[in-house]
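Changelog note: in this version the structure field was regenerated for every chain. One regenerated record is shown below for reference.
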Amino acid sequence: MHRRLASLRDKDCLAVGDGLGLDQPMQHLDQYRAALMDQLERAFDDQRPALEKASDAVATALRNGHWIYFAGTGHSHLLALEMFYRAGGLVRAVPILDEDLMLHRSASTSTALEREEGRAGRLLDRYGVGGRDVLFVISNSGRNAVPVEFAMEGRARGAAVIAVTSVAHSGAHPSRHDSGRRLMEVADVVLDNAGVEGDAVVGLGDGLRTGATSTAVGAALLQAVMTEGAARALAAGWVPELYRSSNGGGELENNRLLERYRGVIPHL
């Protein structure tokens, strides 16, 4: 496959700048920027109560020694990884990962599998998600069986379930779960990424659209909630365990955390 891609690249691609109109104003870049900034402002400004509830849930879990889990399928699993093992990140932030639901093995297969019921419950069992934990479920469409089941099963186990989704996109399509319910209808708290139906925000004409925003806005919402949650836990007397930059002198502290949690936190 990679050789075929290289062959296509050599045969069909223009040299940089050849016929690409690079002397024209970057109007589509500016359109994407404007749309993204507008979404960020609406996502933060229009849902303060939901952000408060999500931050309180994180702070409460941290103060009581519980865990913050993140689950997503397809591109949404990128946001689960975004929260894991990075500078400034909470040590108790744990991604729920299933390679069959990610993209690197087979993107098309992952699309089919995220519509199957029964997988999410097994994954929550594998990771030990339980009462008083927090489970963030990320799905832009919020309609496929696995994310809906993550939320339903998480709540059944006593976890606080927080959805990160597009209300506009989800509301435009029926659920693929047997219950007929979508993620935004089964979560305790809903964080709307303020995205458009279809995710892509820039029109190129003839029905072509590009420029997805759900990953960028979702990452910003999650990082903000983790920041506020950690600060609230600290104000209540619990010092949050945070990874440091290993490229900025933080290796000693990180090694101490690794020694404590290796074998406890999956994927370390």
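Spot check on this record: The mean pLDDT is 90. The chain is about 45% helix and 15% strand.
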